[in-house]
Amino acid sequence: MNSRSSTVYRHSVATRLTHWLFFLAFLALVSSGLQIFNAAPFLDASDKTDRHHRVLAIQAPRDGVGTTTLLGHTFTTTGWLGWTDDGMGGTAPRAFPGWITIPAYQDLADGRRWHLFFAWIMIVCGIAYMAWGFGRGNLRELVLARSDLPNLLPMQLYYLRLRKEPPAHGKYNPLQKLAYTVVLFVFAPLIVLSGLALSPGFDAWFPWLTQAFGGRQFARLWHFVLMLALIGFFVTHLLLVLTTGVFNHLRSMITGRYTLQGANRSVEGP
Amino acid sequence: MNRRIFLAASISTALSACSAIGTKLNENDGFHKVLRAAEDVNERLIGTRGRVRTYAPRDVSADFPVNSLDTPGSSQYMRLIGDRFASYVLPVDGLVEHSLRLSLAQLQHMMNVTQITRHDCVEGWSAIAQWQGVRLADVLALARPKHDARYVVFHTFDVDANGMPYYESLNLQQAAHPQTLLALRQNGKPITPDRGAPVRLTVPTQLGYKSAKWVRRIEVVASMKTLYGGSGGYWEDQGYEWYAGI
């Protein structure tokens, strides 16, 4: 450690605990969600199942061939989508491969058990995190404020290397705040609501919810697209962690302690 | 570029490790019991409330999938097809004050509901059909369940390749829901043998596997533990949720 480095206590116990629970639940939800998708590997922009409104279909038109049809364009995706690893050492007509689903083999019943259990872990964690964040004011450093708006473009220009210095900001830069705000207040609530919109019992209770998503099959499409958006956020988050001092970040998310070194840019969190 | 390949490789390795660990955990009885706790929470929170949306005739699916075991092939069912279900009798018995034996003509006479509802399969697809039939609540009101009655069990003519009969069950509240029907007609015509003739259940507040086809007998019970696998239904005995409202 040089003379310009110092250690700060960066993440509270609550943040660290919910962070890793979010991570676990996210992995479990994606893997079991793909297992569930495999039971009906198509997505329609309609209420009832309707081939005329099909957006995505992953199929095995014949033995040993997998195809993916997106908006009417068909691609051969053998081995990746359509005809894939069956999770038992062989290959089979399966939309998503066994190595990415829970359980690895085809098992809708257990996929649903996992999904509906970890959905609760996610929801309870989400509520705890929000309550904690609001209570202690921690969320303020993550949420986009009006004063951040003029700095969004300069920050983007900096990332595009069209500007030498990033605009002045706190722990998180304006684009990071935008990403966190959208994930916490748009994507997360919408993915829960679009999931609930698939439930016939919930539909009987609040019929306007399913209709707001354009119907049950459309809600399934929303649920899938929101998953892709969250995966996009997750990959970006990983990239930032990996490129800005992966061990320092990992340690701060485990022990809470983060080492500041030299220039104050490294104060940024992923 | 190297970093991108490294990242993609690490993510796919992590995911396959996640799938492998998940598969192992899935086979652990204790862990499975924990997962199953969610069903109770969902049943308590969502339960059976309100009414599902009803549709207009133009919304009816042109091709309602026939998604079940094969049409029953037993000699008993074959005889019924032979006489066009003239000798069909639906017993309603078990923990009831008045056991019933309802002929198809009696059920047709009681028929007073037409509803167009969406059938949501556990696999993920949905199809809309018009159903005409008798409210299950009306049949149960005639039979009058006893005080210790808790569940209504639907025995069917359906048997899988291993000889396991298809059956289903609802609790009394779900059975009394005004949209829970014993359907006799689908899209204006008598239900065909492949779609559950002569009487099938339709439970639009829950997933499709609850809507048993080919209903043979209705039995009111206090517990489902002694029936077949003990979980209250053919698919439930294979791990699916008994509460299929989600």
Question: Strands, helices and their partners?
Answer:
The complex is a heterodimer of chains A (270) and B (246).
Chain A: E1 6-9, H1 13-38, E2 42-44, E3 54-62, E4 65-70, E5 73-76, E6 82-85, E7 91-94, H2 108-136, H3 149-159, H4 174-196, H5 200-205, H6 207-212, H7 216-243, H8 246-254, E8 257-260
Antiparallel strand pairs in A: 1-8, 2-3, 3-4, 4-5, 6-7
Helix pairs in contact in A: 1-2, 4-7
Chain B: H1 2-26, H2 29-45, H3 75-82, E1 89-94, E2 100-103, H4 104-110, E3 113-120, E4 126-135, H5 136-143, E5 151-159, E6 165-171, H6 172-175, E7 181-186, E8 189-190, E9 200-202, E10 215-221
Parallel strand pairs in B: 1-10
Antiparallel strand pairs in B: 1-2, 3-4, 4-7, 5-6, 5-10, 7-8, 7-9
Description:
Chain A is α+β, with helices and mostly antiparallel strands and 270 residues long. Chain A has helices at residues 13-38, 108-136, 149-159, 174-196, 200-205, 207-212, 216-243, 246-254, and strands at 6-9, 42-44, 54-62, 65-70, 73-76, 82-85, 91-94, 257-260. In chain A, the strands form three sheets. Chain A has a four-stranded antiparallel sheet with strand order 2-3-4-5. A two-stranded antiparallel ribbon of chain A has the order 1-8. Chain A has a two-stranded antiparallel ribbon with strand order 6-7. In chain A, a hairpin with a 5-residue loop joins β6 and β7 (91-94). In chain A, α1 (13-38) runs antiparallel to α2 and α4 (174-196) runs antiparallel to α7 (216-243). Chain A is globular and about 65 Å long. Chain A starts with 5 loop residues before the first strand and ends in a 10-residue tail after the last strand. Chain B has helices spanning 2-26, 29-45, 75-82, 104-110, 136-143, 172-175; strands at residues 89-94, 100-103, 113-120, 126-135, 151-159, 165-171, 181-186, 189-190, 200-202, 215-221. Chains A and B meet through α1, α2, α5, α6 and α7 of A and α1, α2 and β4 of B.
